[in-house]
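User: I'm designing a mutation panel for Rod shape-determining protein MreD and want to avoid disrupting the core. Could you give me a predicted structure to guide residue selection? Please restate the sequence first so the numbering is unambiguous.

Assistant: Good idea. Sequence first, for numbering, then the predicted structure tokens:
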Amino acid sequence: MKQFKLFIILFLLFLVQGTVMPRFFYSTSDASVQMVPQFVFVALLLVTLFGRLDWGFRYSLLFGFLTDIIFTPVLGVYAFSMALTVYLTYRLSRWVTITVVSALLLSNFGLLVEQFIVYLIYLMIGMTQQSFWAFLSAHLVPTMLLNAAFALISFYPLRRVMESTAGKR
């Protein structure tokens, strides 16, 4: 029951990033910019930084598979990349004190690694024809900016949710 509020928040973010956000970013005629909301993943990174690795790892597998099933033609790419990146970011976070700046940097690092893993897997199996420079300029930079803004906005609310959840142990 103590994780129910967290699950509801992550599920609502999943719904928002998959239904509401594409209306804002994909309806423009400028197709040279691919701004992809990854709000659930950024929230999972913050949950892992504030809470426990096993919660972040489980939720990353769950929402990674949901992303694979609903949005992608290849099963397991997002589940693998999200779980691996959550683990790597958690290990890296043990070396720093978690402040707003360090959480923003770690979440951006995690998003960068996750996007590169997905791009490399799709490139290896022939699912994308996008060049590396096009990926970098048209996809990665706008996606990083959008999700960094979300991480900055959601830092304190997610920290409060994790502190209240941790207090119920």
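For picking mutation sites, this is relevant: The mean pLDDT is 90. DSSP finds six helices and no strands in the chain.
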